[in-house]
């Protein structure tokens, strides 16, 4: 790989990371962290947050998106 290809890859990865950060920020403001199925355990000096509902929702959305992209990309 030449330097120009690596530069393009870094720019694309940065844009993707910024989009993911924006979606996470927006999801937090919309209250996605408090969906049904979210488990929160805590004790003295520790806590554990398990977002099962959000994980299922993201899995369904990504499955639909990837199925759509695969179907219409010709593969």
Task: Give structural notes.
- With 75 residues, the protein is of the alpha+beta class.
- It folds into two domains: 1-30; 33-75.
- The chain is built from two helices and two strands; from the N terminus they run αββα.
- The model has no long low-confidence stretch (mean pLDDT 87).
pLDDT averaged over residues: 87
**Global geometry:** extended
Strand content: 15-25%
Helix and strand succession? HEEH
User: N-to-C terminal Cα separation, in Å?
Assistant: 27 Å
Taken together, the total number of domains comes to 2
Please, how many helices?
A: 2
Main sheet: strand order: 1-2
Q: pLDDT under 50 segments (min length 5)?
A: none
Helix/strand class: alpha+beta
**Strand segment count:** 2
Short description:
This protein has 75 residues and is α+β, with helices and mostly antiparallel strands. The chain has helices spanning 3-30, 52-72, and strands at residues 38-43, 46-51. Strands 1-2 form a two-stranded antiparallel ribbon.
Considering the chains and any ligands shown, give keywords for the structure.
2 strands; extended; 75 residues; 65% helix; 16% strand; two-stranded antiparallel ribbon; 2 domains
Topology:
Blueprint: H1 3-30, E1 38-43, E2 46-51, H2 52-72
Antiparallel strand pairs: 1-2
């Amino acid at each position: 790989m030449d330097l120009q290809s690596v530069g393009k890859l870094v720019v694309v990865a940065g844009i993707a990371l910024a989009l993911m950060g924006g979606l996470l920020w927006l999801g937090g403001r919309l209250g996605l962290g408090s969906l049904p199925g979210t488990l929160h355990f805590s004790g003295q000096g520790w806590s554990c947050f398990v977002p099962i509902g959000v994980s299922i929702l993201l899995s369904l959305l990504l499955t639909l998106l990837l199925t759509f992209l695969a179907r219409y990309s010709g593969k």
